[in-house]
Amino acid sequence: MRIGWISRVLSWIAAALVGGVFGVAGTIGHSLMWGPIPVGLIVGAIACGAILVAIRALTHDRGATLAAGLGMLGMLVLISGVGPGGSVVVEDTLSGRIWIYLVAGLVLLAVAWPSFSRLPVRTDAVAEPAAPQAGPRGDDASSPTRGPALGDRTGRES
Q1: Cα–Cα distance measured from residue 40 to residue 32, given in angstroms and rounded to the nearest whole number
Q2: At what angle do helices 94-112 and 5-29 cross, to 10 degrees?
Q3: How many Å apart are CA 115 and CA 60, to the nearest integer?
Q4: Any idea what DSSP says for residue 89?
Q5: Looking at 23-27, 45-49, 71-75, 85-89, which range is the least confident one?
Q6: What is the pLDDT of residue 141?
Q7: Percentage of residues in the chain with pLDDT exceeding 70?
Q8: Which of 109, 115, 96 is nearest to 50 (CA)?
Q9: What is the dihedral angle through the alpha carbons of 139, 141, 146, 150, rounded to the nearest 10 degrees?
Q10: What is the average per-residue pLDDT within 15-41?
């Protein structure tokens, strides 16, 4: 069943909104430090990466993943500038620069990851058995029990 273009565009919009929410949350929390450990960067990267992977795995659509990534990056850029009161969310520090490049790298990785479901599958050829000879009752007289079905790799009887 083919998905209509309206459904696809609506899924892209929803993915962009979800990506924007995760982008805002990660951008606000990226600067949290517990001593020397950048907890905000770690948790934000895990959350943003997880939502990108989830969208890619659930929709099987690079477009939806790209929309979520653009939502993340768009909100990061939008709230990274100097606000009207002079406040800055993403400072020009090492953690700020790491956060910007980390989100861009996660988006690039999630969108560019190959789709393994479209790779060709190797199948083994199964030899056709000779046609069984019918007995006087019309059943297979050559073997009293029926063997596994053709293509049945379990070896169990059907």
Answers
A1: 5
A2: 160
A3: 8
A4: S
A5: 85-89
A6: 52
A7: 75
A8: 109
A9: -80
A10: 94
Which residue reads 């934000």 in tokens?
44
Torsion angle, CA of 6/72/52/63, rounded to 10 degrees? 30
CB 69, CB 52: distance < 8 Å: yes
Is residue 43 within 8 Å of residue 83, measured between CB atoms? no
CA distance 153 to 158: 12
Examine the pLDDT at 155 and tell me if it is beyond 60.
Answer: no
Residues 97 and 82: their CA atoms lie apart, in Å, by 15
CA distance 99 to 93: 10
